[in-house]
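haha ok so turns out i had the wrong file open the whole time. this is the CORRECT one, sorry everyone. sequence first:
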Amino acid sequence: METGLGSLKEYQEHLLARIRDSAANGAATSYLGMVVAEERWAVRLTDVSEVIPVPTLHTVPLTQSWFLGITNIRGSLYAVADIAALIGRGHAPLNADTRLVLIHPRFRVNAGFIITRTLGLRNIPLPSQPPEKEEVSWITAEYHEPDGKVWKELDIRRLVSDPRFLDIASPRLTAAG
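then structure:
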């Protein structure tokens, strides 16, 4: 008998393989739709390795308030950030809808971030425009739907190279140093 976890992992691998095949054949880019700080965000699905329920998090003392701690995923440690708190928009709720998005290994960062909830897979063929008054470089575009919904595109490569994301030390330590 197959476990639910094995089935889910196989399903995710199959889905990612289909998306990679579509991308290789010139199809539209697929995104994971998600809610962060009550806004619609999208991240390229090829930049994500997994989306899972939030596992047990182990806090790390003397770190930024947006750094939630570390977790063990199948024997590997991952740093976990609250992206909403990182950009100063309050902490994401930790409930049944909250998910942990793990960054793809090609970025060489064992890290993930929590989101309020997923909105499923999206193809975003709408023309993009530069984001309005974003304070971070890793929100690279906005997409406006005809019904007024706005999607913000999260660029993982920029996120993992942003000094704010990389500096998890408490401001008290930085000021004292």
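The chain has a mean pLDDT of 87.
again sry for the mixup
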